[in-house]
TrEMBL record:
InterPro entries in UniProt: Acyl_CoA_acyltransferase (IPR016181), GNAT_dom (IPR000182), N-acetyltransferase (IPR051531)
Alphabetized UniProt keyword annotations: Transferase
UniProt domain N-acetyltransferase: residue ranges: 28-197
Matching PROSITE patterns: GNAT (PS51186)
Protein name, per record: RimJ/RimL family protein N-acetyltransferase
Region (Disordered): 1-21
Pfam families membership: Acetyltransf_3
Biased composition (Polar residues): 1-13
Species assigned in the record: Bifidobacterium aemilianum
Stored Gene3D superfamilies: 3.40.630.30
A single GO molecular function term of this UniProt record: acyltransferase activity, transferring groups other than amino-acyl groups
Species classification: Bacteria, Bacillati, Actinomycetota, Actinomycetes, Bifidobacteriales
Amino acid sequence: MPGLPEQSQSPAASDQVADESGLQTERLLLRPWRIGNADDVQDLYRYAQDPEIGPSAGWAVHRSVQESAEVIDQVLARPESYALVLKETGHIVGSMSFKTPSNTVWPDGCTPDRTMGIGYWIGRPYWGQGLAVEAAKELLRHGFEDLGLSDIYGVHDVENHKSERVMDKLGMEWVRIAEHVRLPLLPGEVYRDQAIRCLIRRQWESRQS
């Protein structure tokens, strides 16, 4: 792919809110990832090189800035995939997206019509601040109200207690354990047991009143 553009100064958070279409919460702007944007690339690489981030979410540590640029181009810059931008600073602090169910972890406790999965990660400097829950609540609202989804499911490694707590706070109910699931984005033959959680539209609606 072409060389990376020169690093620019991060735009003011207010400018990003005005210029980028996306979803918003009190502290966060959820907006599309930008192909070829040096600020997005540097923010992603800052977190993706941390071995505590990617492997727990099922993907490999990034080894270079160029690799992060390629991941934005080939993976993250797609519909319903959002960079989580902290309004106070204008910098990305994580990522969140909807994805189609896989055959391996199909949530059999959910109805098959209009079902999507939610995936997310937050950079380590921002752990423990409630940002994942805050962003996910807005994405759930978007999924049920704007996209008309009937169910939204989540998957986390059984040992990933941070993600487990996020899904607990979102009201996602336990469905089952998918055993010995292969994680193709990690090097080698890596298999893990994964917990399947699901939130049905009527359950979400009952909690909004």
